[in-house]
Amino acid sequence: MAKKSSKVKEPAVAYEKTSNLSVSDILHIDDHPLDEPFDRLEVFRKGLPRKSFDSLKELSGMDYNTLATALGVSSKTLQRKEVFDTIQSEKIYQLASLYALGINYFGKEGFKRWMDRPLFTLGNRKPLDLIDVSEGIDLLKSEIMKLQYGIAI
Question: Pfam families under this entry (predicted)?
């Protein structure tokens, strides 16, 4: 009788790391490091440029209205901005940090789907509905980290 192989044949793609996207990659900030808190303070105080916002907008797939709500400005104001103020720059950084974490875990399309569907752990709210408040962004990061570390919900 032939001996059966005990090897499981699964597609390798299921185990490949999706990407190693950083916040600096998303915001196209090469001349200022964003790794250290004091460096971030200076970047936020100077204001993030339009190209950082446009890059986040393109990567996230969010429209002007959604991003305007998240940043606490009107969509018209958002379309006219060339350099963002301190508070808006900090919020753009937080969103980029969330998207870097999410895309590195889920992949780009997977994270977009995750952001757009109601989750039981969030009281059947869509993650996208929580990005207008810093605490909501922190909550979403926490949810992703729980998934990364296999913490049962």
Answer: Xre-like-HTH, Xre_MbcA_ParS_C
